[in-house]
Amino acid sequence: MYLFKRSNDLKKHLDLVRKSNKSIGFVPTMGALHSGHLSLIQAAKKENDVVICSIFINPTQFNDPKDFEKYPITIEEDIKKLNDASTDILFLPSVEEMYPEGLSANETYDFGELETILEGKFRPGHFQGVGRIVHKLLDIVQPHKLFMGQKDLQQCLIIRKLLIITNSPVELVVCPTMRESSGLAMSSRNERLSPAARKKAVAIYQELEKIQQEFSKGLYFLEAAREAADNLKKQGFEPEYVDVLILDNGDLRHISEPPGNNTVVVAVAAWLDGIRLIDNMILQGAL
Ligand SMILES: Nc1ncnc2c1ncn2[C@@H]1O[C@H](COP(=O)(O)OP(=O)(O)OP(=O)(O)O)[C@@H](O)[C@H]1O
Ligand SMILES: CC(C)(CO)[C@@H](O)C(=O)[O-]
Ligand code: BAL
């Protein structure tokens, strides 16, 4: 695996790759890699000749400084996992390399209402930071395809908008959420849970499944979503939202009428043990 820390060196290498008519698949990450990330690498390998992964803990997307300070770093293990997965290139830039202009915001993207709900509501500024770094990474890598996980569903929709806003030819491929055998969505932040909390965290998935069951019966899924928040509270979680939404022309809207044939999703964010966990399920349709 090639390792690049400087964007100019990486760009030169990728120019040669493109000249030899090879397709490039890109998997951006913040490291602390788990099987969810590796599933994105596998998907990228299937669809491209060359696969590049980036590891960069992006300061501008953290609205909570404590979350940034505590974000897990396991770079040695990450390199081994990427090598074992036959990743072709790792891009490991520094903050100075990615933000020579400094961290304060100098560009704002108009993501519309999508930025004001769910993660956008509870993590102010988060998606501007995500947009800023993904825009920069795409300018450097210029991949044919970009692979991201459904676990961060709203992020996928934001990036879809970013690609439109920036007139990018890149194709976004959304990959399914990898789960532990318990059902818990894999996440780097799970590493910060105590063993007891990690067991308890499965309740998020269980509540999502209950809502799915109610939805397939067609009746009381909104009540089930409200009950889910109560059930999580009773078990010691602090839920921020359990919301059912429809996908409407690239945006998510809270359900106010029967969903018809629209894609319907349920999304959850809840704190447990000082760790913020998110998950979601598609109840109908596709992203
Ligand atoms: N369980 C998963 N299954 C599939 N893809 C995933 C999973 N978890 C994360 N990803 C995807 O991996 C990419 C990098 O995500 P990131 O490095 O933030 O990992 P993470 O596990 O989501 O960490 P966090 O604790 O910040 O949620 C994103 O596109 C994300 O959606
Ligand atoms: C897309 C991303 C790598 C941007 O920093 C990050 O938000 C993530 O890991 O999901
Ligand atoms: N996994 C999305 C990136 C973040 O939580 O900041």
Number of domains: 2
The helix content is: 40-55%
Mean pLDDT: 96
Strand proportion, as a percent range, falls in 15-25%
Biggest pleated-sheet summary: 6 strands, parallel
Catalytic activity: (R)-pantoate + beta-alanine + ATP = (R)-pantothenate + AMP + diphosphate + H(+)
Active site: 37
GO molecular function: ATP binding; pantoate-beta-alanine ligase activity
Pathway: Cofactor biosynthesis; (R)-pantothenate biosynthesis; (R)-pantothenate from (R)-pantoate and beta-alanine: step 1/1
Could you characterize what this model shows?
- By secondary structure, this protein is of the alpha/beta class.
- It has 2 domains: 2-175, HUPs (Rossmann fold, 3-Layer(aba) Sandwich), CATH 3.40.50.620; 189-280, Pantoate--beta-alanine Ligase, Chain: A,domain 2.
- The protein contains 11 helices and 10 strands.
- It has helices at 7-19, 35-47, 65-70, 75-84, 95-98, 118-122, 126-141, 153-165, 195-200, 202-217, 221-234, and strands at residues 2-4, 24-29, 50-55, 89-91, 145-149, 171-175, 238-248, 251-254, 263-272, 275-284.
- Strands 1-4-3-2-5-6 form a 6-stranded parallel beta sheet, sandwiched between helices.
- A hairpin with a 2-residue loop joins strand 7 and strand 8.
- The longest helix is centred in the middle third of the chain and has 16 residues, at 126-141.
- The protein starts with a strand and ends with a strand.
- The mean pLDDT is 96.
- Residues 29-30, 36-37, 39-40, 148-149, 151-152, 175, 177-178, 185-189 line the site of adenosine-5'-triphosphate.
